[in-house]
Specification:
2 domains; five-stranded mixed sheet; five-stranded antiparallel sheet; Beta-Lactamase; alpha+beta
């Protein structure tokens, strides 16, 4: 994917370099007032500026809206009487006095699979295929009074640049689909694990303390309602902490006074959007390791601080700790591997996929010193909430 993106970018730069030269030739009368050494620079700057204005629309893919927003910039870039963008089936957008033959020209170009020149009145046309990953997805058509060899070359280069932007859009969409599929798989991995632990805890009270079992079932029902109602992969920090609270109540019922826990939360960060079920696995890991090496007792502390543009979260236990190399291996293991549980690797992977590698988990631990897991969450608005 990275190689493809680099190829598309290199192709785009080469295309724009030629277009800048062509633009200098066509606009020479406008540049005569400039010192000779600045004319080429001015044409290059203008070309790059216009391309930058068209790029955001094209990076959303080829459709009527993106074509409509990009076509006027492409006409300015080419300096022709008119420009049209088509898909393989319809004319998507045009700017200037295009002829009614644009779709006929496009179909002929699609059938030929290469650039075509058409004579016509009052304007001739140059039509070039647009491709994504080797597949023709549409055409770029330019209409002008005189169809020269330089115009054919320029339209071809602009079409290559447009194709590069569409290819990058396709890569973005593929990456997003892969991320969404990965997150759905990780979420499906988390929920059954928690269900198993919760029901096992509740089952231990069914005969000895039915009333307590009923209360725990209600706590578990609250968690289930939270988990199953989420249509997206994000929630608020407030809801996530409520989920953690329900989990801790279930675990406290299991371990009794042997498990101590505390939560310290800055109210300002409660509305911050966070990945769904990003904290419960960390608390589960803290309980798992915190109860070791201290006679079966342990304390878990959750601290959430306001840190300007970010929320800083720590989950700490006072257990036996571990060798730092062991912690590194836990982060590196495959979260999808059967039997690997939900643990640190799962949350670390999702945080890095969503926010970037700089937002992975940080684990501070040593033998006999407990374990502290830190994560940072930007205070960004997530559209999927």
């Amino acid at each position: 994917m990275l190689t493809t993106a680099c190829v598309a970018l290199s192709s785009s730069l080469a295309s724009l370099a030629f277009v800048a030269g062509y633009g200098l030739a066509r606009a020479r009368w406008r540049l005569l007032a400039l010192p000779e050494g600045r004319r080429s620079d001015e044409a290059t700057f203008t070309t790059l500026h216009i391309a930058a204005m068209a790029a955001p629309a094209l990076r959303t893919g080829l459709n009527r809206d993106s074509a409509r927003r990009a076509v006027r910039h492409l006409r300015t870039l080419l300096g022709t009487q008119a420009v049209a963008i088509t898909s393989t089936e319809a004319a998507l957008a045009w700017e200037g006095p295009c002829t009614d033959d644009v779709l006929t020209y496009a179909r002929a170009t699609l059938a030929a699979g290469r650039a075509q020149v058409f004579a016509g009145e009052p304007h001739g046309a140059v039509v070039v295929p647009l491709t994504v990953d080797g597949t023709v997805v549409g055409t770029l058509a330019a209409f002008d009074d005189e169809v020269s060899a330089a115009l054919v070359r320029t339209v071809t280069e602009v079409a290559r640049w447009v194709s590069g932007q569409l290819e990058l859009a396709d890569l973005d969409a593929s990456r997003q689909r892969a991320l969404e599929a990965e997150m759905r798989a990780l979420r499906a991995q988390i929920s059954p694990h928690f269900v198993y632990n919760a029901l096992t805890t509740i089952a231990s009270f069914v005969r000895t303390n039915p009333k307590r079992a009923r209360e725990l079932l209600l706590d578990f029902a609250d968690f289930s309602r939270y988990a199953l109602r989420r249509a997206h992969d994000f929630t608020t920090l407030a809801d996530e902490l409520t989920c953690v609270d329900r989990y801790l109540l279930l675990e406290r019922a299991r371990f009794g006074d042997k498990l101590r826990f505390s939560m310290q939360v800055a109210p300002e960060v409660l509305p911050v959007p966070v990945p769904f079920l990003c904290l419960q696995p960390l608390v589960e890991n803290a309980i798992k390791h915190g109860m070791r090496g201290r006679g079966g007792t342990g304390e878990v502390r959750v601290v959430v601080r306001d840190a300007g543009p970010e929320a800083h979260i720590t989950v700490e236990d006072d257990g036996a700790g571990m060798d730092p190399e062991c912690a590194r291996r836990m982060l590196d293991e495959d979260p999808a591997r059967e039997g690997s549980g939900i643990g640190l690797a799962n949350v670390d992977l999702r945080m890095r996929q969503i926010y970037g590698d700089g937002y992975g988990l940080v684990v501070e631990t040593a033998l006999g010193a407990g374990t502290k897991v830190r994560l940072r969450v930007p205070k960004t608005t997530v559209c999927s909430l």
